[in-house]
Amino acid sequence: MSLLALTLICFFFGYTINMFYISVLYHRALTHKSIELGPLMTKWLGLTGVWFTGLDPKTWACMHRLHHMYSDTDKDPHSPARFGVIGVWISQYKSYIEIQNKLLSQDKELCLLVKDIPFDVSFTNRHNMTWLPYIIHGLVGFFLGSWFTSIAGVAYFLGMMSHPLQGWMVNALAHKYGRRNFNTPDQSTNNTLVGLFVFGEGYQNNHHHAPQSAKFSYKWYEIDFGYTLCVFAEKIGLLKINRSSTF
Length: 247
Description:
Layout: H1 3-31, E1 35-36, H2 39-53, H3 57-69, H4 80-83, H5 87-104, H6 108-113, H7 123-126, H8 132-147, H9 150-160, H10 163-173, H11 192-197, H12 204-209, H13 225-235, E2 240-241
Antiparallel strand pairs: 1-2
């Protein structure tokens, strides 16, 4: 196997696991309930989400619900209309930390917003060890590099821990550049490149028009790899898609 092929396999392995957790489980299932998770899968998500993504699922869902409530206004936690395209990179991190701390301090408004989520903020976040998942995946990457080549280990780590770039592409570019299928009250757009790279998440205009839809693509040429993961996961019994509200 060539070095390039091995590097790509390591990257896409990590990237696909990360996107399954964030796009399918965090976003479509936990936040919007367009996908139904059974009790065991819900418990699994609460226990393992932070270890595979570095992000606490409850905090992520809370921040995303706030984004939909106040999209592209002065209360949006990560809008380019408020922070600028480059500024979203920092604002999404600061907002995440602020929301996490408010949930930990039992802020009434935010706790009410996620009262339907049947687990607490993750163990690592409750005990000020948010760095631990990154260390673990760094070690996995190190061992992969030892067995194969260092670039394969780096590719794995970047794929698995790629959420800052994913989030910025969606939150900044897909609320600034692109076309619109629907006249939503925010500035959401359908950015084709972001849609391809971030497994359908770039079709923000479609998503803001119908956040209850598990499928983010609307027109025939829009490709939603995240929904493909949903269908595959449903076939093996991990979840159930709510098709009554799907495009």
